[in-house]
Specification:
The protein is mostly helical. It has two domains: 14-133; 143-253, no CATH class. The chain has helices at 14-31, 50-71, 78-102, 110-133, 143-152, 156-171, 178-185, 193-213, 221-233, 237-253; strands spanning 33-37, 41-44, 106-108. It has a three-stranded antiparallel beta sheet with strand order 2-1-3. A hairpin with a 3-residue loop joins strand 1 (33-37) and strand 2. Helix 8 (193-213) packs parallel to helix 10 (237-253). The longest helix has 25 residues, at 78-102. The protein is elongated, with a radius of gyration of 27 Å. The two termini are 51 Å apart.
Length: 279
Amino acid sequence: MYETVVSEPRRLPASFWWVLGSAVLMTVGAFGPWETLLGVVSFSGTELDLGWHVIGAAVAASVGLGFYVRRRRVWLCLVPLLAGGWSVLLTGGELSDIGNEGGDLEAARWGLYVALVGSCSLVLASFCLAVESTSREPKVRRPWAVFAFSVLTLGLYHLYWYYVTNRELKDFGVGKYPVMSLLAQFPGALLIVPPFVSWWRFYSRIREAQGRAGSPDQVSHAVGITLFAIGIILLPFELVYAQEHLNGIWHSVDEPAPPPDAFPYTADFAPEPRTAPEG
């Protein structure tokens, strides 16, 4: 008699509901009043057309969440993240225009603020959802795919990759604070120096991990920092260089152990000789 086993569905991360709530907040703000003209006439976000763009971003984020529920792929978190980033540009730009040109004629209303807060919340929630959805096991990635995703997402994937790889090194026993490494990139980039210090230490952690894993390769601080400096002006080639060395570490760790001997018996486990029965 066979027993039927029903697998329990995987639980959704808490940040999933944060993303969904942010999309709802964006929609509420889009329908709310955005500005008042002469203190008398109010215009909602949908009447200014920009509100419909915010609603479209919220719908796109919700569709991305729907596919995420079915597939549970980390890259699907990019859909709400990019949608939130686009909405932040729209609402932030509109708020800036009202402040610079409105004067006493125009004033921003609560709907615009709600839409802006919801958009910023969507970006943060999508990033947290991507991090929560990432496996704790070290992952071998295609270096040029990392490069392409970083360029296409205007650096957002770069930040995600930097946090995850530092977390993987921490789980391997190298480094302690991946969140601090991420903060050194942003908003630390506003101070110019912290990203360079963080990347220097990142290469140090890679070199230490290479020693622990017995990897034949060794990362170069000089090459890595030079590529990082070039990446600030041109393209992030340092990602390709760092990921190739990280792949070497994980390949070294995953190498199979040598096969056991064909006959692993020793004298201690040899069968006892048979003796003739008494009598």
